[in-house]
Description:
Layout: H1 7-26, H2 28-34, E1 36-37, H3 48-51, H4 59-80, H5 82-117, H6 122-131, H7 140-153, E2 156-157, H8 161-174, E3 179-182, E4 185-190, H9 191-208, H10 220-239
Antiparallel strand pairs: 1-2, 3-4
Helix pairs in contact: 1-4, 4-5, 4-8, 5-7, 5-8, 5-10, 6-7, 8-9, 8-10, 9-10
Amino acid sequence: xxxxxxxxxxxxxxxxxxxxxxxxxxxxxxxxxxxxxxxxxxxxxxxxxxxxxxxxxxxxxxxxxxxxxxxxxxxxxxxxxxxxxxxxxxxxxxxxxxxxxxxxxxxxxxxxxxxxxxxxxxxxxxxxxxxxxxxxxxxxxxxxxxxxxxxxxxxxxxxxxxxxxxxxxxxxxxxxxxxxxxxxxxxxxxxxxxxxxxxxxxxxxxxxxxxxxxxxxxxxxxxxxxxxxxxxxxxxxxxxxxxxxxxx
Length: 248
């Protein structure tokens, strides 16, 4: 049973809520400063690698994430302790970041290189991606590649979902037979089946572009990355729980 809210979960909740209140007050300026923009884009800043984990795209987004943080995070923190919980949480967040940016670059670099090889300069490509205006006469192939990378270059990433997926993976490893349900699919399923199923759906959505239970602009590979990093952190701790690497 979940008792009182644990310390790290409480403080992370408060930080997320403060960011959300500030976003409600200052709107686009908060997204420009604290959402994670594509590296190299005009709005990108190094601190966004952390701050994007506390930003959310709307009321529904933050409500779902904070409910999941409370639902699974309290149990995980009570079992791991606060230090290991915080390490797990941010490891999953950075894992989500690496997977999503890696997925972006996997799609971005080939098209970008084709634009360079077609005779366009790096400066002109950046100018067109920033302004959404073409320069001069472009071939159909150049226009196609620009359209392919434009949404990547101008994408912003927000949310604690990657961190939450890491907590969900940890919860599932500690409670494999706990029964979980989705709001849209109220059928109890054991965590050891439910959580891998969610990860596979996210992976399929990332590759196919088809959305099932999330908005179409969801960073699906971030979900996968958070879960994968959460799993491997937990696996490492379990494997080494009796040696000198154990956290006290």
